[in-house]
Amino acid sequence: RTVATLAARADALHVGGERDRALEYLLHQNLFGAYPVDGDRAAAYALKAAREAKRATSWLLTDEAYEAELTDAVRRWVADDEYDAAMRDLVDRTLEPARINSLAAKVLTLTVPGVPDLYQGSELWTDGLVDPDNRRPVDFELRRKLLADGAVTDGPLVLDDEGSAKLQVVRTALALRRRHPAAFGADGGYEPLRATGAANDHVVAFVRGGRV
């Protein structure tokens, strides 16, 4: 329903020129994931996404007219009250489960086989899009402060906009790897655990190295 509303607003705000519906769907998704996004950030992301899709324009064969209309359209979207209201409603309804999924994904990133990768600054909630958006300055002082204050483990941490819940997950997982290096090494086992109960299809669980 929300996607239909966003697409309808895109239709209403369209002023002519070629359109790529699949690209627009991608843009709606990413504007949701990084909400709120200002016009310049949204336009920069749309331009790169369109060039890399190579459907109507590309890095080597740019269609300046198409690119101008696309970036102008995206700026109209994010400045439109109805579009913004629909996006904000979706964000409000999905914030908690989305953040829980984000934390689960981070736990998996730091514990499954392979070398764990932490993009600089991503220890807290991050709304970075593609470069250069994801190369914005990192507030290291805030991260040092949160680490020095210690993790708070009670209360609705996922609703904390500062990101202390994610920092706690990262710190705990990395400390676990340090305590049990063999379990997470090249020879560390990776065995599934089967969950039971009404919510078993929501659970991903495994043992590393026979002990973690």
Question: If you had to describe this structure to a student in words, what would you say it looks like?
Answer:
With 212 residues, the protein is mostly helical. The protein is built from seven helices and two strands. Strands 1-2 form a two-stranded antiparallel sheet. Helix 5 runs parallel beside helix 7.
What does the average pLDDT come to? 92
Largest sheet: 2 strands, antiparallel
Spell the H/E element sequence. HHHHHHHEE
Total number of helices = 7
Structure summary, number of beta strands: 2
Based on CA inertia axes, which overall geometry fits? elongated
Helix amount:
40-55%
Instruction: State the secondary-structure class.
Output: mainly alpha
Distance between the termini: 43 Å
Question: Which regions are unreliable across 5 or more consecutive residues at pLDDT < 50?
Answer: none
